[in-house]
Structures are given as structure tokens and as C-alpha cells.
Amino acid sequence: MSEELHRIRLSVNGVTREVELPARRLLSDALRHDLGLTGTHVGCEHGVCGACTVLVDGQPVRACLMFAVSAVDTEITTVEGLTREDGSLGPVQQAFAECHGLQCGFCTPGFLTTVTACLRENPHPSHDEAREMVAGNLCRCTGYQNIVKAVERAAELADPQHPDGQRPVGQQPDAPVEVQR
Ligand code: FES
Ligand code: FES
């Protein structure tokens, strides 16, 4: 017997999408398979690794532990929604790229969403607080040093008072002027 399907609306990255799915479809599966948002990665599938973390009403949530139907009437943000309005990398994404805060990249979407939420709560973390922010996410490539550096850099990039704050992607303060001949 086939499972009963429910037609629901999910608001993801500011866009409302209609999907038809069984009541027990996980949010992580709905995002990836029903909505095609494959930026959300699935590792352990039981709430341990943090790879599947998305923001639900601004709070980090393990999408592998939540049913999609439970996300109705919430605002979901996935890694795809962390870019700036012009489509360029957002501050946390840019910081991970600058600091080489990723290796294979499998865990990275979960770090990016987690750090985005944490920096909203604490925009100027100490080194220990930056470490604490990523303590619940696992990276099997184990490159945590650069991930912590990226958190600290993301705090700078997200700070409008910092010289590099809000600077468009790729435009560094001391970038040499290229002369075309
Ligand atoms: S896949 Fe959800 S926490 Fe690991
Ligand atoms: S960069 Fe490979 S799992 Fe984290």
C-alpha cells in the first residue's frame, strides 16, 4: 500500500514552494529530493554530525531530525540562501573560502548555517567562543584550525565597522590595480 501524500507549502530562502510528500519525509530529504536544494548534505542521519543543519526561523536545526511537515509556517534558510542579494558569497561563505576552511566540503554547509546563526547572536566572538560555535559540527577531514579562523574572519566580514566589512566578494583592500596593456 502506498503512503498517503500531503500537499504542503514550505518557505525556503524566501520562496514559497509547494510539495507533496508523506508525513514522515525528513526535512533533509524534502530539501534535497523534492526541492532540489542539494546544498544541504546528509551524513550520519541521526543528529550527530551537523552536516544537514539548516536555519528554521533563524535557529540552527538538524534537518535529518525534523519532519518536513513540521516546517510548515516557518522560514527555512539553507546554505543556498546565505549569499548576498546580488548572488555573491555572503560573509560566512567568503570567510571559509578565504581561510581554506573546507577540504572535501562535505561538512561545510552545516558549518556555514551554524556559524551564520551563532554570529547573529554573538557578532564579536573570542577565540574560545569561535571554537565553541563549531563544537557541535563534525568534519571528517579534521581541518578544524582553519574552520575556527574562518569563523573569526566571518565576524570581521559581517561587521560593517570593520575595514573589510560588507566588502564585495573578491575586492580586497590592498588588491593591486591590474593594468591592461
Ligand atoms: S546528517 Fe543530520 S546531523 Fe548528521
Ligand atoms: S571538509 Fe571534509 S568533512 Fe569537513
Order of helices and strands: EEHEEEHHHH
Q: Which regions have little confidence, pLDDT < 50, spanning 5+ residues?
A: 168-181
| Amount of helix | 25-40%
As a whole number of angstroms, the C-alpha radius of gyration is 18 Å
Molecular shape: globular
Please summarize the sheet with the most strands. 5 strands, mixed
Helix count, DSSP H or I runs of 4 or more residues: 5
In angstroms, what separates the terminal alpha carbons?
71 Å
Beta strands, count: 5
Outline the structure in words.
The chain is α+β, with helices and mostly antiparallel strands and 181 residues long. Helix content is 28%, strand content 15%. It has helices spanning 27-34, 91-98, 108-121, 127-133, 144-157; strands at residues 5-12, 15-22, 53-56, 59-62, 75-77. A hairpin with a 2-residue loop joins strand 1 (5-12) and strand 2. It starts with a strand and ends in a 24-residue tail after the last helix. 39% of the residues are buried. One FE2/S2 (inorganic) cluster binds at residues 102-107, 139-141.
